[in-house]
Amino acid sequence: MAQSTIERLEAVIAERRKASADSSYVAKLTARGRQRIAQKIGEEAVETVIAAIQGDAKGVVGESADLIFHLLVLLADMGLGWSDVLAELDAREGTSGITEKLSRPQE
Ligand SMILES: N=c1c2ncn([C@@H]3O[C@H](COP(=O)(O)OP(=O)(O)OP(=O)(O)O)[C@@H](O)[C@H]3O)c2ncn1[C@@H]1O[C@H](COP(=O)(O)O)[C@@H](O)[C@H]1O
Fold first, then answer.
1. Is 93 a domain residue?
2. pLDDT (tens digit per residue) in 3-30
3. 25, 41, 44, 50: which to mutate for ligand 1, most atoms within 8 A of CB?
4. 26 CB less than 6 Å from ligand 1?
5. What is the CA(84)–ligand 1 centre distance, in A?
6. What ipTM goes with this model?
7. Domain range for residue 61?
8. Minimal-distance CA residue to ligand 1 atom 7
9. Where does the UniProt annotation locate this protein (predicted)?
């Protein structure tokens, strides 16, 4: 099966975690610790929110990419992966009242 963009990026992040901090952003950020990685997620989330409020669609796309990238770095640092997040979302499928309402046949 073809790898998704997220899966390819996860593999790159896993590899770059082992690189030298001089040659890799992932290695440099990882060396600074989980608190700093988490802080970067907060910063990127705020930048996404600001772009959204400004109606800056290109900005939202760029900041969302930064946000998801940093989230993947955090998941890797915690021994987790995107598949864990997808499994959680799958488990929630059909549990929301809104989803049930939307999927119920019209009377
Ligand atoms: N997708 C990304 C990616 N998105 C954002 N960034 C980096 O995230 C940083 C965010 O910018 P900021 O201005 O907020 O932060 P900064 O001032 O550079 O750094 P801080 O000291 O503030 O943490 C920038 O340095 C970007 O280069 C990324 N760095 C790497 N990747 C991917 O990760 C791969 C491995 O990268 P290296 O680890 O550098 O080899 C690359 O091939 C890319 O595919």
1. no
2. 899 999 999 999 999 999 999 999 999 9
3. 25
4. yes
5. 23
6. 0.92
7. 5-81
8. 25
9. Cytoplasm
